[in-house]
Amino acid sequence: MKICFAASSGGHLEQIMMLSPLMEKYGGFVLTEKTSYENNTNNHNRYRVLQVNRRELLFLVKMILIFIQSLYIFIKEKPDIVISTGALATIPICLYAKIFKKKLIFIESFSKINSTTITGRLMYKFADLFIIQWEELREFYPKSTYGGGIY
Hints:
7 strands, 32% helix, Rossmann fold, seven-stranded parallel beta sheet
């Protein structure tokens, strides 16, 4: 079984790296954004896609390029499961999981206690397993699974 651990840079990547025991047990690879922010991915294969911000002028162009990059990575690696903590740059690989009939697990951000993320609202519709880290989010995601804090 091969797992793709997908997360944007910064806090999202820090959260996905808390799943290192799963990475060690099952293997797989990490997909994140290409930034100057460095994180130890514990010697796992790491792929970097463009960094994107929904407020920037080239947002749509960058998202198209990320869809292309992610498709290449998905076809090359052939993951059985995609686990993501968001955000925007991970949407394409998550959607490819569904298109290719693979499992998608989405973990809503630890920083969201009383509101949702844009990516979370979208992935809630597609995820096979949607995990919240705060019980308060059950109001927004009634079919979610409470998993407690990832930290």
